[in-house]
Amino acid sequence: MCGIVGYVGPKSTLEVLIGGLRRLEYRGYDSAGVSVISPSGHLETRKKAGKLGNLVAEIEEHPLPVANIGIGHTRWATHGAPTDGNAHPHLGGKRQKLSLIHNGIIENFAELKAELVAAGTSFSSETDSEVAAHLIAREFEKSGDLVTAFSAVVVRLHGAFTILVIDEDQPDVIVAARRNAPLVIGLGDGENFLGSDVAAFVEHTKRAISVGQDEIVILRANSVEVRSFDGKPVQLEEFTVDWDASAASKGGWSSFMAKEIADQPQAVADTLMGRLNSDGSVHLSETDGLSHEDIKNLERIIIVACGTAAYAGDIAKYAIEKWSRIPVQVELSHEFRYRDPIITKNTLVVAISQSGETMDTLMATRYAKEHGAKVLAVCNTQGATLARESDAVIYTHAGPEVAVASTKALTAQITAGYLLGLWLASIRAVVPAAELKRLGKDLLKMPGRVSQVIAGLKQAERLGTEMADAKSVLFLGRNVGFPVAMEGALKLKELAYIHAEGFAAGELKHGPIALIEEGQPVVVIVPSPRDEESLHPKVISNIQEIRARGAKVIAIAEEGDDQVASYAENVIYVPQCEPLLAPILTVIPLQTFALALSTAKGLDVDQPRNLAKSVTVE
Ligand code: M6R
């Protein structure tokens, strides 16, 4: 994981690096560090364990010189504990004039380290990354050219890496490479940037180029060159970042998560914009990589994703199957390719990922492509690897999501799932077009309903705050409410570090009901009673079963459900909508509940322990 930023140009390099790291800190926050080269040609490095604030304090105490070139890193530890010594940058060689930052894992580092140790190199950290710093420094001593030295070493590294290097003896250039880890170039006027994603530099420029697999970047203030690992020049394709820099700042909110929960009406509206007409028909131009013939021939859809994105996939499954009658299975990306799945050319793999850099999901999609499937990505980040490697992309327009816990990206992913379902259904034409348009029109109303939910979150906030001492919370749901229950439990584990589990309510009597004892809090997602096939009566029975055994119930129910109040201690009402669309609304109080409970426990909601936003290791 780790966040990487590089800058060369006339601005205050330190400010650019620290600003970039602040926006990338979601990628890891075990330690942070920077190296700069002063105009007089001296490399200086500061690094510190802990969050970025510790590094900033260190620099205040030991200031860095004004500089026109530098690199910065925020770490999610893999090899070596989160200490000052293991923090990046790492210096290479006896000269200690070369500085390197790395995101990823160098899988053959032990073998390379043994080679270096045998040659007399001593190490000052336990990281795999330091190996690359010494190898490049050694090559530099031979050739006197940083690009030549760098190119000779990256081909020897196995695994995943984005690496940036600067050297005091060639102070005008940053050399970088990527394999299986993200790297994006930001283009400026007389200045250029590098970042793990566009958030690193969007404050300064919206012109960007994403770096391909196994490519080397040679970055100077006035030039950008990209070569493949085997030295061939790479044609650069520029894109414009559509994120607003202010969207990646807290803007007066107590946390990024609080802000991002409130951003959801916009995230849903922006994801629908230009794709859903006022008559309810869907227009998905981004799917041009898939022909109508491809869709008509589809035998199966496999959704691959991890964590919250997988729950978005679970919800999409209900809608896609119901509307298009195409069988859908949802697979955790990391399980998918290791069980020899059945994939044919008539399989569509839908990969859902906010970051588009989740290694498990990238590996799953590569596997699917190798086995002949078409891949459609649902992704929130322009220029991300997943988007580049897929046949078609539906971008979720949630804007930058900074808090580690996913909120607005989820509701945007669910929205994209519904759009996909309606689009597939319109091509397969199993459900009458008029019915699809009716559903589309209801989907158009969702941003307004999300706003209503957001306006009424006080109750969820109060309940979360009151339950700060809870040791365990269970979540129950049925049909589309089941993945919502799973997501509610994930949010609580992730943010409040307490035992939380989501169950299909119908499964309760097959085991989990044994967990219920006096006072056990249980959150129940209650389906709409208006649906003819509604599971409402069954869920009410489930509530009675657990209350009879002492559970304290918080129900999430739709407005107008008059029965539920007599079966629950607390009811949080959300607006009525088409029952299959309800997850966009019912999940929001659960986000706020987890945020409030975590806040009441005094925890860091934006950067929960042990986690990183973007999981770029397998
Ligand atoms: O970037 P992705 O959507 O691929 O990330 C997938 C999961 O790592 C992510 O959703 C994770 O579960 C969230 N932190 C949950 O809030």
TrEMBL record:
Q: Does the keyword Transferase apply?
A: yes
The protein in question is named: Glutamine--fructose-6-phosphate aminotransferase [isomerizing]
Please tell me which top-level EC class this enzyme sits in.
transferase
The GO annotation for biological process reads:
amino sugar biosynthetic process; fructose 6-phosphate metabolic process; protein N-linked glycosylation; UDP-N-acetylglucosamine metabolic process
Report any Pfam family annotated for this entry.
SIS
Q: Where is the Glutamine amidotransferase type-2 domain?
A: 2-222
Q: Which InterPro entries match?
A: GATase_2_dom, GFAT, GFAT_N, GlmS/AgaS_SIS, GlmS/FrlB_SIS, Ntn_hydrolases_N, SIS_dom, SIS_dom_sf
Recite the UniProt keywords alphabetically: Aminotransferase, Cytoplasm, Glutamine amidotransferase, Repeat, Transferase
Question: Which CDD domains does the entry link to?
Answer: GFAT, SIS_GlmS_GlmD_1, SIS_GlmS_GlmD_2
Q: Where in or outside the cell is it found?
A: Cytoplasm
Main subcellular localisation:
cytoplasm
SIS domain: which residues? 291-430, 463-608
**What is the species of this protein?**
freshwater metagenome
Give the Enzyme Commission number: 2.6.1.16
Reaction(s) catalyzed by this protein?
A: D-fructose 6-phosphate + L-glutamine = D-glucosamine 6-phosphate + L-glutamate
Question: What molecular function terms (GO) are annotated for this protein?
Answer: carbohydrate derivative binding; glutamine-fructose-6-phosphate transaminase (isomerizing) activity
**Entry GO terms, CC:** cytosol
User: HAMAP family under this entry?
Assistant: GlmS
The answer to keyword Cell membrane applying to this record is no
